[in-house]
Amino acid sequence: MKQIVCMKWGTLYGADYVNKLYGMVKRNITDDFRFVCLTDDPTGVRAEVECLECPTIDIPAPWNNTGWRKVTLWAASLNLMEGAWLFLDLDVVVTGRLDDFFNYKPEQNFVVMKNWTQPGTNIGNTSVYRFTVGSHSHLLDSLVKDPQYQVETYRNEQTFVCKEINDFAFWPDEWCILFKTHCVPSFPLRYWKSPELPAHSKIVAFPGNPNPDMVALGQWPEKKWYKKIYKQIKPAHWITDHWRE
């Protein structure tokens, strides 16, 4: 059984993001699969998605409701979950077949997307990773024991996880890409050329802004006037081809 999990808490992303992620997974996976959403509000989530309570993390605010909350997946045990899981952030767009993510380097209990914004640092991007429940429970234990030290030592959750595990693998480069790094034309070409989807990509990640719904409309929100000069994109119509229920 292929197992996929995502997390949704708070109001940053609505149920539509979960529903579209499920739709993209279903269209790009072979055989039976289990899709779980860990959430504090299952309202509006399609019936095919198995909604379980989103685990909380016993560290101070505001970190307890940031990406650091994803470290709860490394607990010694998870409610009704066991074995290997493919974690997907809600703001990814699935553009290719997912089957290979479940059999790539089966000896590794942590395989993660390369962090394209920090090359050569051996840090992954946890928008897309495969993990085994209970395999590295020390991560959650050490974070809860001394959260102040961990958040001051490590830039974010994915840096913490990769530096503390150390022994892990990256997905093949062409499988997982960043929208802003691999799809957006260089400046000033982005004023008249639409973002392109590289061949052979399977998942496109959208950390920060813009989100997939914004990209489909050609919007790149930015408050600072001088950044608005280069933070420009044309509508990417391939988004709506893939990012749908």
Task: Explain what the structure shows.
The strands form 2 sheets. This protein has a 7-stranded mixed beta sheet, sandwiched between helices. The chain is an alpha/beta fold and 245 residues long. The longest helix has 13 residues, at 15-27. It has helices at residues 15-27, 100-103, 138-145, 147-153, 157-165, 179-183, 212-217, 237-242, and strands at 2-8, 33-39, 50-53, 84-88, 92-94, 110-114, 124-132, 169-170, 176-178, 203-205. It has 8 helices and 10 strands. Helix 6 links the parallel strand 9 (176-178) and strand 10 (203-205). The mean pLDDT is 96. Helix content is 24%, strand content 20%.
Structure characteristics:
245 residues, three-stranded mixed beta sheet, globular
List strands and helices in order, with pairings.
Elements: E1 2-8, H1 15-27, E2 33-39, E3 50-53, E4 84-88, E5 92-94, H2 100-103, E6 110-114, E7 124-132, H3 138-145, H4 147-153, H5 157-165, E8 169-170, E9 176-178, H6 179-183, E10 203-205, H7 212-217, H8 237-242
Parallel strand pairs: 1-2, 1-4, 2-3, 6-8, 9-10
Antiparallel strand pairs: 4-7, 5-10, 6-7
Helix pairs in contact: 3-4
